[in-house]
Design goal:
The complex is a heterodimer of chains A (283) and B (232). Chain A has one domain: ABC transporter involved in vitamin B12 uptake, BtuC (Orthogonal Bundle). Chain A is built from 13 helices and no strands. Chain A starts with a helix and ends with a helix. Chain B has 2 domains: 145 residues, Rossmann fold; 68 residues, no CATH class. Chain B contains 8 helices and 9 strands. In chain B, helix 6 links the parallel strand 6 and strand 7. In chain B, helix 4 crosses helix 5. The longest helix of chain B is centred in the C-terminal third of the chain and has 18 residues. Classes of the chains: A mainly alpha (283), B alpha/beta (232). The interface between A and B is medium-sized, with 28 and 34 residues.
């Protein structure tokens, strides 16, 4: 055990790994808070859809050789998120179909763009990095980490400030609207926050695995708790614990960080399902 | 002055008109039952009063100090919310949100109001229970307590007894009558249960296909119905 800690503290003397740890935990926390609302509003797939859109935007940015691809990726993803979450009423193509369409569309176009116009010699490696995150979290600079911290603080404080309103809009949008809560604005805030979190989370787990960070902690928490506050708190705690464990394991075993975190999340879901089941059986 | 005045109101969705020429006024303390066939626009009327759906024509005016966001609304049964993790207290408190404005958290007064309304409906002992584990009648009371937190003056109830067993139905009617008689809250209720409507309501609004058929006192409604044929 002592040897294990020694090994870990040796690794964390590298700033790169410390950055990865800070960014990873913050992103996981933000994603899990949002996840509760998204899962309950039946938007579980939006994370998947938006992350593929972000992948498309990343390929476009890399082909355009933008120095900072966030300048393109962030606005595009936010726009699509707003379009998906807010413009659902009266749209010709509805909900799940719109998400599915945009999601695979962006994936296909993104890969094609990279293939045809790409300048990199290691196309497979680039695509793999964007899709699965693989090593990209280890290339974070200090600026990236600061941006991540600032964004997380914004997301978490927005969530705290609007917590009661988010609950009302999530539980019963019609009633909330009837009592003068402008649910449209809260949906818009939700859409923007979701897009920001997804773009940030791409660095950690890559665009294919983001959904896991959003849905697993929320679903695990719902096995155990019956109040909204309980679920939100539990979801945040579980997500942070899983992210820490996942990052430690991936460092010790040299496994891909994103995939490891996701696997820990899956294991946690299994444990929570079992605990919830036994509790119900016992009474 | 009347709390609600509807003038030449037409109801509809997406440019399609369901009913028109609706004229009625609701005074403080009235108990109005809205009856009519399925699809005649009863629920749409409620939603139009709540500003969830714009009126296709005509106007709805609120008066007597009633403000738009101070209407207590009990929606139709929400089947999709079955698995929602929320405690009774959280749901009832969310009715107080219209008092908060930009303040992010509930204050003491609002928490007391929520407790008072749970007490009033006999669900205070359920405050910490999970909403999804309650019976249909209990769930409906939770939503009614939430509506009461949002208003002191007017309740709009959309089929409050639909799907309840006879005992729970009877209890619900008694609760609503008590709120109307003793606390002076105006009630406007969509209902399929004409017998109960005649028993409890002071006024009946009958919306037929396309237009308003009757508005007036419940006592005169029975005579109108006998004279003008069996519309329902």
């Amino acid at each position: 055990m002592a040897a294990l800690f020694e090994k870990l503290s040796f690794y964390f003397s590298y700033p790169i790994l410390r950055y990865a740890l800070i960014a990873g935990v913050l992103i996981a926390l933000c994603a899990s808070l949002l996840g509760v609302t998204l899962v309950l509003k039946r938007y579980s797939f939006i994370g998947d859809g938006l992350s593929h859109v972000a992948f498309g935007a990343v390929s476009a940015a890399s082909v355009l050789q933008l120095s900072n691809n966030m300048l393109l990726v962030m606005p595009v993803t936010i726009l699509v998120a707003v379009f998906l979450l807010c413009a659902r009423q009266g749209a010709k193509i509805k909900g799940d179909a719109a998400i599915a369409m945009l999601s695979v569309g962006a994936l296909g176009v993104g890969y094609l763009i990279m293939h045809v116009f790409g300048t990199s010699s290691n196309l497979a490696g680039d695509v793999c990095t964007t899709l699965f995150g693989s090593t990209s979290i280890l290339t974070l600079t200090q600026t990236d980490v600061w941006m991540c911290v600032v964004m997380s603080v914004v997301v978490i404080s927005a969530y705290l400030l609007f917590y009661n309103k988010i609950f009302a809009v999530t539980f019963d949008e019609t009633f909330a609207h009837a009592t003068g809560i402008r649910s449209g604005i809260y949906k818009l805030i939700l859409a923007v926050i979701t897009a920001v979190v997804i773009v940030l989370a791409m660095r950690l787990v890559g665009s294919l695995l983001i959904s896991a960070l959003i849905i697993f902690p929320a679903l695990s928490a719902m096995r155990l708790f019956g109040s909204f506050r309980g679920v939100v708190l539990c979801s945040g705690v579980l997500s942070v614990v899983c992210a820490l464990l996942g990052i430690f394991i991936s460092i010790l075993w040299a496994s891909p960080m994103g995939a490891t975190v996701v696997c820990v999340d899956i294991a946690m879901f299994g444990i929570c399902t079992f605990l919830g089941w036994t509790r119900r059986e016992i009474g | 002055m009347a709390q609600i005045t509807c003038d030449a109101l037409a109801l509809g969705y997406d440019g399609k008109r369901i009913a028109e020429n609706i004229y009625f006024t609701v005074q403080a303390g009235d108990y109005v039952c809205v009856v009519g066939e399925n699809g005649s626009g009863k629920s749409t009327l409620i939603k139009t009063i709540l500003h969830l759906v714009p009126p296709a024509a005509g106007s709805i005016r609120l008066g007597d100090g009633l403000r738009q966001k101070e209407i207590g609304y009990l929606p139709q049964q929400m089947a999709a919310r079955r698995d929602f993790p929320a405690s009774v207290e959280e749901i009832v408190l969310s009715g107080c949100l219209n008092r908060c404005g930009l303040r992010p958290f509930y204050n003491r007064e609002e928490k007391e109001l929520a407790a008072f309304n749970m007490e009033r409906l006999g669900i205070l002992q359920l405050a910490r229970r999970r909403y999804r584990e309650l019976s249909g009648g209990q769930q409906r009371r939770v939503l009614l307590a939430r509506a009461l937190c949002a208003t002191r003056k007017l309740l709009l109830l959309d089929e409050p007894v639909a799907g309840l067993d006879p005992t729970a139905t009877e209890e619900m009617y008694q609760i609503i009558e008590k709120l109307n008689r003793e606390d002076g809250i105006t009630v406007m209720m969509v209902s399929h249960d004409l017998e109960a409507a005649l028993q409890y309501a002071s006024h009946i609004l009958h919306i037929g296909t396309k237009t308003q058929m009757y508005y007036g006192s419940a006592a005169a409604y029975a005579q109108w119905r006998d004279k003008d044929g069996s519309a329902i």
